[in-house]
Specification:
Layout lengths: L5 H9 L3 H11 L11 H30 L1 H13 L4 H6 L3 E3 L5 H9 L3 H6 L14 E7 L5 E8 L9 E3 L16
Antiparallel strand pairs: 1-2, 2-3, 3-4
């Protein structure tokens, strides 16, 4: 009466971890599995990359909180999305948000929480002048195929001939523009 895949069945039946269940199935069906021991450099690279995902998730949550919990977010951002026909569940599902019209709202909160300015800059969340890169914009989170936030796009909310209508995160270790499609 349970659902799942073969690995999950083996995990429950044999009381194994997921990797051990895969090894068990590979041995049973004579499939050679080549396991690679990561070098300390590769482990460090993997940890640095994971920290970028964690920081982007923090930013996604910050922008969404700004949208739903601040007066400016509700009156500017939420009214924009609702005017476009977006329902609240859709807004939350796609990680839409609002970047306030302040120079250091995100940078200040993120650094006080313990995130390093160097990483904020690496992800394009902070400018070279240590200010918020996204200001007074509705925010669109760009996710990878596994659902992790990898970048952001922001649409300005006032007409300003000097500012671009849309700005995007720069390319990073976790976001390569020609390899990611928004909403995919």
């Amino acid at each position: 009466g349970k659902a799942g895949d073969p690995a999950k069945f083996i995990m429950e039946h044999e009381h194994l971890t997921y990797p051990d269940a895969l090894r068990y199935l590979a041995r049973k069906y004579r499939i050679e599995v080549e396991e690679v021991q990561l070098t300390p450099e590769a482990v460090a690279q993997q940890q640095a990359e994971e920290s970028l995902y964690i920081l982007n998730e923090y930013a996604r949550q910050f922008y969404q909180d700004q949208l739903f919990e601040t007066d400016m977010g509700k009156s500017i951002g939420l009214s924009y999305f609702k005017g476009r026909g977006f329902r609240e569940d859709t807004i939350r599902k796609f990680g839409l948000g609002y970047a306030p019209n302040e120079h250091e709202a995100f940078v200040k909160k993120a650094t006080q929480t313990g995130y390093k300015l160097e990483f904020l800059k690496r992800l394009g969340l902070a400018s070279q002048y240590d200010k918020d890169f996204f200001r007074n914009r509705v925010m669109f989170t760009i996710h990878n195929l596994s659902g992790k936030p990898i970048a952001f796009a922001g649409r300005i909310m006032e007409k300003d001939a000097k500012a671009p209508k849309y700005i995007n995160s720069p390319e990073t270790e976790i976001y390569v523009k020609n390899k990611n499609l928004y909403g995919a």
